[in-house]
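User: Hey, my collaborator sent me this sequence without any context and asked if I could get a structure. I don't really work with proteins. Can you help?
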Amino acid sequence: MTQPSPFEAAYGRLIAAYRAGPSGAAKATALLETVTRLAAAAPVSVEAGLFLSGEYDIANLRSHLLRRQVERLAVAAGTPADTLEALARALGGEGALPVHPSIGYEMVTQLVPEAPRPLHRPAGTEESQRLVLMGAQDFVEDDERAPSAFGAEVEALTSAVGSASRRGAWTEALHASQALVRLSSRVPEMDRRTVAISARRTLSRPLLAGFIELAVRTPEEQPRAAEVLQWRGAEAAELMLDAIRTTESPEPHRFLLDALARMPDAVPLLLPLLQSPQWREARHAAEVLGRQMAPEALRPLRGLLEHPEPRVRRAALEALSRYPAATGIEAMRQGLSHPNPGTRQDAAAAIGQRGGGALAMPLLAALEVERDAATWLAMLVALGRIEAPEAAAALATLALRKRGFLSRVGLSLSQRLEVVSVLASAPTRAARQALTRVVREAEGEVGRAARGELDRLEPAVGGGG
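Assistant: No problem. I've predicted the 3D structure and written it out in structure-token form, which is a compact way to encode the shape of the chain:
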């Protein structure tokens, strides 16, 4: 796929900024000025094309065009800023695409359902109709484009898929389907839609369901199956959800969850599952929606923090920790103050895995009032994993603040030594800076412990040879 133009790259980032909500407002203002300036001098045309198995990119304009079923977007020179803003918000959300004289859309061709098939032949296994690709003969006589050379290859692959599926050779059918999907991105622009339609008709629902069953039984085929399923879009997403929604352990179907996390078509299908009475469905949906950072999932994900099943609460916390701090910080505070200590530990773990400096102070505040020993330690470990100056300052303060004889403020000696131990094992520069400060300022046993840990981590250089 060709590199995006400056307008395309900036416009993709603008859509992502609007999807981020208030936290992206300042960035969106600057990006809107940029795209308005870029569109002022010359018209812009963007082809959605066909993505393969790469991660769905929230800042990629082509991702959003595909999600909204737009094949080609045309923006006239001098399109006003308010129109560009309305279009960006619509592409990133679910609202209607704006109608304006300076904007043109060419929508993806919708397939007409095929006629009922004979009962004696399994659905999706008949030989495909002969594929006719466009060539130079289809244009004016002075066109210099050569006839497409892909027609025979497409026909051979569709025939191979049908033949293998009729014989129950699912591995062979999957390999041919992957080749067909990859071929669809290599054909010339003039043939791409024709090939895509042929591929979608070949990759029928029964065939996709067979690929899912094969991949669950045969882990080595899972990357291949995921690539085909992702390309197939919303119809495949429905089958993938049917396969995982009743499973208690997601591991045999982990590849499906990973694939769904790269499919924006799956978001509307997943949102209702957050309210499902089946805790498994809510957990799976929370994981995938968090990985997509879908803004429409924020509110229902926060609601799951009160779910009676702790595994659902854990999945919701992990999902919320992926969102920008400006939108997820209140949810993480809610998790840190949950009545259940296990959920408080899950909140700490989620913050430690992905949290930024903005979560260091809420974590410190929760740690200072925590009375459960295991949860206190989990919060301390999480604080040590945050790579930010705020985390370094908080950790050093904990190690240096000893409890007074008549006061409960501060930590006991054993707790301060625990802080030193966590600082020494934390994999961040912030923790190392905090440990260095403790060495410099602490006295007694805490100072000696900190010096010993620092010497172990940074052995003296030089000396005898």
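In plain terms: Confidence is low (pLDDT under 50) at residues 51-56, 109-147, 460-465. You can pass these tokens on to your collaborator as they are.
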